C-alpha cells in the first residue's frame, strides 16, 4: 500500500509523455493516427506549442509538442525534410498535424520518412479539433503533475524533518525513503558493504546478491546522479567534508521501451527524496557523534586518570556515577580492544599501504574501533566507561552487578563487537584483566588487560577474549619487558644475529630462525613457512649456528633462543 500522498503512478516523470497526451479526450476527438516515430512515444511533453511557420525551431527550447495545420510549411520535399530535421535537432517531443487545410488525406510521405529516420513522433489528426482544447488539457495535466510533485516534495521534507528531530536510525530512514518512493533503497559504506536496505516489496536476496561487485560498477558523475544503464539513482552521504557512504534508489523500469531499462531520468521528486534522506542520515550521524563527544571526553578523562593516578579515586567514582556508570559496589573488569598486528596499516605489507598510509589510516581506524566498541556495549546492554587510551587500543571498564556475571558479560560484549565491526572481525583482539571489587583496584585490571592485549598480538588463535592464562610465557615477558636483566638476556642470545641483519638488510636471518623455532624445529615445515627451498633454508640455519655459536639441534639451546625471540617481541612492541 502506498504511503499517504504517494500514489501508484508517482514514479512517472513530472511531464506527461506523448503517449499519454494522445490518450487525452480532446486529442482522441481528432481521431489521431501515428504515422512515424513510435520509439519516441515515451518522450516527456514539457509544453504544447501551436506553429504555422517553417522556422519555428529557432523559438523552441526542447520538449514541446508542436501542433500545426501545415498551411505555412514548405511546399518542396527538401524544405519539409529540413523542417523535420530542425524540430528533431532542437529536441521537440513530437509533431501533430491536423489534416484538411493543407493536407487533405495524409501528410506527405517525405515528412513521414524524415520523422521515422529521426525517431520523431509524427501524428495525424484526421478530424478537425480546436487546438485550444488540446493545449488546455495538456497544460492542465502538466500543472497537476507539478502540483503533485510539490505536494510530494513537501511531504518528503516534512517526513525527513520529523525523522531528524526524532533521531531516527539509519534503518528507519531507509525504510521511510523506500516507502515514499515505492522503490528499493540501499545504504552502503565506502567499502560497498550494505549498512541498511529496504526492498520495497521486492526479493531482498535478488536485490543484494553480489552487491559489492554490482555497486562498484556504478560510477555516476557528481554527488547525486542517475546511472541509466543499471537504473540506480545514487547520492553520496556525508557532511563536513567527510563522506562515509552512498544511498541508492532503484527507479523501476515501468515505462521502458521493451529493452528492460527506464526511460529518461527519474522524476525530480525522487532526486529530492534521496538527497533529503542522505542529509537526514548525515545529520543523524553528526548529532549522535556530537552528543557523544562530550561524554566520550569525560570517559577518556576518567579512564586515563584511573591508569595514571592523576585524580583521586573517590573523585573519579563520583564523576562516573554522574555519568550513569556507578563503580562502587560493582564487579569491575578492565578490557582492552585493539586491531591485531597484521593489519595493513600497521604492518606496511607490500601493496597494502606503507608508513604514510598507516599514519593517515591509524587515527581513522581507532575512531571507527572506538565507535564500534561503544555500540557493542549498548547492544550487549552493559554499563561501563570506554575510550581510546593510546594510539593503538580502546579501553573499557565494565561495571557489572556481580562477579558471577563476568564471563557472560565478556562473551556478550565480544559477540556484539564482532557483529558491529564489519571489517574482518577476526582482526579485532579483545583482552580482559582480572575482575576487581573496588575502584581502587581498577588500575591493576586495566594494566593487566593492556599487557595481555600486547602479548596476544602475535597469537594466531581466534579467541573471543584473551585472558592472562592464554598468553602464558609471552604475557610474563611483557610484564618484564622493561627489566634490564631481560634486555641483557636478549642481547646475549641474539645480539650477534641482530648485528648481522643490521649489516645485511637484504638477507635477514632473524626471520629464518623464527620460522625454524615456531615450527618446532621441523626444518621442512620451517622452509615452507619462510618461503625458501629446503637447501637454502638449511644453509641459512648453518650460518645462524655459526654466527650465534650454538647448536640448533640442541633442544636446550633452541629453547633459550625462542624465549629470547619472545622477549625481543615484547620489548619491541609499542
Automatic annotation (TrEMBL):
A single Pfam family it belongs to is: PucR
Domain (PucR C-terminal helix-turn-helix) ranges: 509-567
Species source reads Micromonospora wenchangensis
PANTHER family in UniProt: CARBOHYDRATE DIACID REGULATOR, DNA-BINDING TRANSCRIPTIONAL ACTIVATOR ADER
This chain belongs to which protein, by name? CdaR family transcriptional regulator
Q: Which family does it belong to?
A: Belongs to the CdaR family.
- Purine catabolism PurC-like domain residues: 20-142
Q: Which InterPro entries match?
A: CdaR-like_regulators, CdaR_GGDEF, PucR_C-HTH_dom, PucR_C-HTH_sf, PucR_dom
Per the database record, which ranges form the CdaR GGDEF-like domain? 313-454
